[in-house]
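Protein Record: Sequence and Backbone Structure Tokens
======================================================
Tokens: labelled as protein backbone structure tokens, with as many entries as the chain has residues.
Question of interest: how does this chain fold, as expressed in backbone structure tokens?

___
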Amino acid sequence: MPLRFLTAGESHGPGLVAILEGLPAGLALAQADIDHDLARRQQGYGAGPRMKLEQDTAHILGGVMGGLTTGAPLAFVIDNQDHAKWRGRAVEALTTPRPGHADLTGAVKYGYTDLRPALERASARETAARVAVGSACRQLLAQFGIQIGGYVCSIGEVEAALENMPLPERIAGALASDVSCPDPAASAAMRQRIQQIMQARTPRAG
């Protein structure tokens, strides 16, 4: 059976939900490993205050008994800890689409006049559910000796020198870097470039 997943939830709603279908029965699935990957998601350099606020835990609601998958769909929920301060709060409508976001797409597809439903659903917050799903898939692949890793080669004009660096060293170096770059000199330059962009950006309207 192919692996398929579905997510639901909004950025400032009660929480995020993910359902993963297709995992075989009998797979050891450790929630601590999933939470570890969720914590990694929040550690990138330049992360916004929302990333620092949430301490994400993926509560497993179904598909696991006694630490082993049952073969049924796996269900997670990740609580949004700042939901309480938004509950019942009147929020001004967003009517001007922001470049590079899903605002205009949502308005065209669903007929929104207030673009916030598109904003809430397409928020980076939703990626927490995808990280939880990916972490479960990572644990499945590990049973076959397959490891997943990645690294950043460049940010803007800053490029890492990786030609003579073996792949395992690249992945290990990326895990130790807050910009996921295994080249220490390039990592420092990337942090500086990110800081420059953050300081130069203008406040957005709406």
User: Anything to note?
Assistant: The beta strands are 4-8, 15-21, 58-62, 64-65, 68-69, 74-79, 154-155, 158-159. The chain has a mean pLDDT of 89. The first helix runs from residue 31 to 41. The longest strand covers residues 15-21.
